[in-house]
């Protein structure tokens, strides 16, 4: 597939601090890539490098087959949407949308065409003669997206555009951005720390930590087969449950708190024996049963039943570890109840406790 953005051996240092470390990234034409990670992981810094707002310490950036490593932002063929709306308060929406085009001395007829097209796509036509102060947060963000849209570029960069909005507006605009990508087919690189945004929007997610991409893959692959403990713990709400134990019996079983769980059906094949290993299981891949099953269940005690609306989270303790299990909301379990947990090993992840990598 043809590459739209190519990041090659990118390094960025702020003095003695290395922020991005020998980073490589290929974004296909028309792809929606999400840069996901906690604060300080380097995701916004990488986006700013793509935009030309930061100079690299080493490496290259190519956009649409052109080396733009040292090109000015307005020479890169990109449109950027920032976290803050950054609208001119004294101008109308129409003025905000057309300002950059007028500065570029574009013919008025073409400006009018582009503004009308952006307003139609983003459904802000009735707002064109209002000023930003008369708009809601969601409407302002639509205008900010429209300002990038009128540039008619191939690549859009989004820097946490929904983080200033309340939960309902975030959900609504998330759908709008997904529709926008489906309609336009442009390449989009989107920065967020919100995993729900990442999982719902992305064609592929780049999970970052400490200036390094930990895993780059499709959302479901990252959710079901995390590359390491960090990715496993960062993705999912609540996050993956972790059981510390050992791989025993020639790789056939996992020993935890005196109980051995059969690893038959584990997706990674039969692992080697490990004195220190971690078995990760999602809350929805555990069943609560009342009778033990040899090689399939571990004993646990209910600690808390937390109704979540459509379902409930039951928090339990086993072998000193705390686990969460997703159950139907009508199933109520009193604190202190002794139960057994049946693990779906076929959907579990096994990690080396020393390297923290998935086995």
In a nutshell, what does this entry contain?
InterPro entries: AAA+_ATPase, ABC_transporter-like_ATP-bd, ABC_transporter-like_CS, ABC_transpr_MalK-like, ABC_transpr_MalK/UgpC-like, Mo/tungstate-bd_C_term_dom, NA-bd_OB-fold, P-loop_NTPase. It is built from eight helices and 20 strands.
Architecture overview:
With 359 residues, the chain is of the alpha+beta class. The protein has two domains: 3-230, Rossmann fold; 238-352, OB fold (Dihydrolipoamide Acetyltransferase, E2P). Helix content is 24%, strand content 36%. It is built from eight helices and 20 strands. The protein has helices at 43-51, 93-103, 108-122, 137-149, 167-184, 195-201, 219-224, 229-234, and strands spanning 3-14, 17-28, 32-36, 58-63, 66-67, 78-81, 155-159, 187-192, 204-209, 212-217, 241-248, 253-256, 259-262, 274-281, 286-289, 297-307, 311-318, 321-328, 338-343, 349-352. The strands form four sheets. Strands 6-7-8-3-9-10 form a six-stranded mixed β-sheet, with helices on both faces. Strands 13-12-11-14-20 form a five-stranded antiparallel β-sheet. It has a five-stranded antiparallel β-sheet with strand order 15-19-16-17-18, with no helix packed on it. Helix 2 crosses helix 3 (108-122), helix 2 (93-103) runs parallel beside helix 4 (137-149) and helix 3 (108-122) crosses helix 4. The mean pLDDT is 93. Keywords: ATP-binding, Nucleotide-binding, Transport. This is ABC transporter ATP-binding protein. Belongs to the ABC transporter superfamily. Residues 5-235 form the ABC transporter domain. GO terms for molecular function: ATP binding.
